[in-house]
Amino acid sequence: MRRIVTLPEAESAAGTGEAAHFRALEQLYAGAPINRLFASRLDILAPGHARITFETGEEYFHAAGATHGTLYFKMLDDAAFYAANSLVSDRFLLTTGFNLHFTKPLRKGKVIAEGRWVSGKRRVFVAEAHLQDEEGEEIGRGTGTFMRSHIALSGLAGYRVPE
Question: Within 10 A of 7 (CB to CB), how many other CB atoms are there?
Answer without folding.
Answer: 14
